[in-house]
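Lay summary. Proteins are chains of building blocks that fold into shapes, and those shapes determine what they do. In this project we predict the shape from the chain. Here is one chain we studied, written as its sequence of building blocks.
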Amino acid sequence: MSRRTLASLSSGLLPGSNKSSMSLIANPISVKPVVGIPARSASTSSSTAPPKRPSPYRLIPAHTFLAQFAPLHVAGWRLDLLPTSPAAPQTAEAGMVDLQDRRLVRLYEFESGKQGWKECMRFMHRLGEVHHPKILVMPAQDYIPTTITPTSPQSGYILEVSTHTHTPLPAPPANIGQAGSKEKMRPGVTSKDVRLAEAAEEIWRDNSGGGAV
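And here is the predicted shape, written in a compact code that computers can read:
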């Protein structure tokens, strides 16, 4: 290897190359950003996120519940104390403000005989498709009233539907920015239970048998 070749390698030039070719290596081409197209930032993408829906498992403020419950009350639903609750009985009509330790309950009555029993089972099956409420089915003469008394206690069948949320979230604060309750929530009535009661009424209106309380 000649001295000229060694000198070329140590200087970074290959034999037969020139300075113009090396200038491209030493000065790579830089790509300029396109003017007029802003860079996408995290704040821009987060600002377009849709607002969150209120949880159906949250306890309902008293004034909201009374407005939603009014048509259900007319249909035969009642606000009852949970059997396991240590609280004193109190009703919405008496100005109840706390829906903890409460449940929604409704009686549906069916005629006696095979036809009444078939209609009762059909109604119960359709209720199960909506959700999983607590359902009691028995002859009317065996039913022990708690909140609602059957219109025909000695004949036909009784189907009692009750619903409550086992682990509800606290009700939203009255004022924006106010901290919510940090106490452990007891079982009670939430939007989920109101919606189930409304769905049960829709099914009942479509049901062909029995007589509503």
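What the prediction tells us: The first helix runs from residue 3 to 10.
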